[in-house]
Write a structure and sequence with these properties.
Blueprint (H helix, E strand, L loop, with lengths): L21 H9 L14 H11 L11 E6 L2 H8 L4 H9 L2 E7 L7 H4 L6 H5 L3 H25 L3 E5 L4 H8 L6 E9 L16 H4 L4
Antiparallel strand pairs: 1-2, 2-4, 3-4
Helix pairs in contact: 1-7, 2-7, 3-4
Bound molecules: flavin mononucleotide.
Length: about 210
């Protein structure tokens, strides 16, 4: 396959430069919503693994790949997580087909000899730098979290990300052994009806959010 623009010829793209079809752009962004109400359809571990298998190719600094996932499925685990969520979000955790706790792994550097062989020595450099590793893990895991939300949509699933949980409590409850640090949770399933009662809110435009120098 060539990398020139001839692959775009003949297709009816709505925007100059958009290299995916209108349907794909709608599925991933324009018609996707943040979903709070899900059907009872199951979401399997295989589906989640397939989404991860796709989004793991998204870029991170030094290929650190610090995002970690806890798949919360059993009623007992849901109850433990729900107790650590703000009251308004508890019921959603209990009702969703499955909930993911997204976390950052400050121990990501141990994988650098494999993930970044050109910078393998950084594993030793970063070992004593716990604060730097925390910051790198958090920044890059959050980037991966964005990929994951879009990846779920690409798999025909809907995502309901929720912040506001007691992250230290979640870490103590679920990550005492791994040292992972929770970021936020994402309910996953298929939307029931519109999936949300909120009308779509405006978005800032490129002009609102950019400067050109
Ligand atoms: C990291 C993150 C945390 C969020 N936390 C909450 C939350 O705690 N409660 C909530 O109702 N919505 C939460 N949201 C949903 C956002 O408000 C929602 O994605 C945004 O308003 C856009 O909605 P839309 O995708 O339906 O257009 C969160 C979204 C993200 C990405």
């Amino acid at each position: 396959m060539t990398t020139d623009v001839t692959v775009l010829d003949g297709l009816d793209f709505p925007l100059p430069g958009l290299a995916v079809s209108d349907d794909v752009a709608d599925l991933l962004f324009r018609e996707a919503r943040t979903v709070g109400a899900f059907t009872q359809d199951d979401v399997t571990d295989e589906q989640i693994a397939a989404v991860y298998d796709l989004v793991r190719w998204g870029p991170t600094a030094m290929n650190t790949i610090p995002l970690r996932l806890l798949v919360v499925r059993t009623p007992e685990a849901r109850a433990r997580l729900a107790a650590l969520m703000p009251e308004g979000n508890r019921e959603r955790v209990l009702a969703a087909p499955v909930t993911l706790v997204l976390a950052a792994d400050p121990g990501f550097h141990k994988h650098l000899p494999v993930l970044a062989p050109h910078m393998a020595s950084y594993a030793d450099v970063l070992e004593p730098q716990a604060d730097t590793r925390d910051q790198m893990a958090r920044t890059n895991a959050l980037i991966q979290a964005g990929y994951l939300i879009v990846g779920l949509r690409a798999a025909g699933l809907d995502a309901g990300p929720m912040a506001g949980g007691d992250t230290q409590g979640i870490d103590a409850e679920f990550f005492a052994e791994t040292g992972w640090k929770s970021l936020f949770v994402v309910n996953v399933g298929r939307r029931e009806g519109a999936g949300t009662h909120r009308p779509r809110a405006e978005r800032l435009t490129f002009a609102d959010t950019s400067l050109t120098v």
